[in-house]
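step 4 of 6: structure.
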Amino acid sequence: MFDWLANPNRFNKITEKIQPCILLIAIITLISGLYFGLFDSPKDYQQGDAVRIMYVHVPSAWLASFLYFSLAISCVFYLVWKHPLADLVSSSIAPIGALFSALTLITGSLWGKPMWGTWWVWDARLTSMLVLFFFYLGYILLSNAFERKIDGSKTASVLAIVGLINLPIVKFSVDWWHTLHQPASIIKIGGPSIDDKMLLPLILMIFALSFFSLYMIILNVKTKLIEKKCEALLLKSNLEEMSKTG
Amino acid sequence: MNAKYRRLFITIIVILTLGLATKLILMALEDNIVYFYTPNDLIEKFSDTKNIQSKIRIGGLVLENSIKKEGKKTIFMITDRKKEVKVEFKGPFPDLFREGQGIVAEGMFQNNNFIASEVLAKHDENYMPPEVADALKKNNVWKGDSN
């Protein structure tokens, strides 16, 4: 099945059709999510208007974690099945994931200052999120650090799989240890402890960022496929020239 | 096919081994990972030691009707509904500081007194509009402020 999907031509043909739909869904959910989040949702009883930072912070954090999971799975496919497209997918996911984990840290910091009274503390949730960001950066740096591209891809894939251990720590840190960060509100025993009017923009924003990521990843993969084709063509013409002059 | 399954097997073994190693490390470092002690932990761990020279953190709820001003100092009790610890702090307090609020204080624990150098507010995982919170309080089904 993977061989069927992982054919570059088929990939291009299928994504050609679904890409505009994905972008449309992303734009619609983003606009409605921001509208509900910023204008048409209630203030929080404790936090007032500052709660609206949540509508960017929480979806970013979810996406950062989910994208890391996808990245690691794609790296497993690359290392085990050695499919070159899996490597393209991993390196297409990494910058988007890094972006969202940076966004999580920045918005979290902006939220922490007015509510907690501090920009940053070294509690388990914040620290493990920072580690997640570093794993993304490490993956990107390592995959470009070798002279032969394939060495970089392999080493970086191993690093990404090692970083998988960090994901449950990010998720459960607030339950396992005393942290300054509050525990989960949405996925918890006994249902979400968040008002429905606040849950709506939150879910819209999660959809918006997910579809945006999907769109960007497909775009990245396509770009990298074209790059590869260009390299191959260049190599071919160089060889032809050499054989002529030689 | 065989080589593929061997690689898959190795990958799974590596993930499981690393997971176990991480779990053991985190268990060993538990005391350093907890961001704060509850009053109960603090008294259990440190009440015999007369002078702890390093800074520690305590977290809990600000006990109702316990906030007093003494000159520049503010004195209040912090509780986990089991034990209470007296905290002294000169400010500035975060906006969310009030009775019943979860807070984390950093400072020195001396003679069962906590001299705080910094106080942070901790908010809970419940999000709701003020009207809903008021209605819940009125109907005595309020569950917030308890952890």
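step 5 of 6: annotate
 - The longest strand of chain B covers residues 113-122.
 - The longest helix of chain B spans residues 2-28.
step 6 of 6: archive
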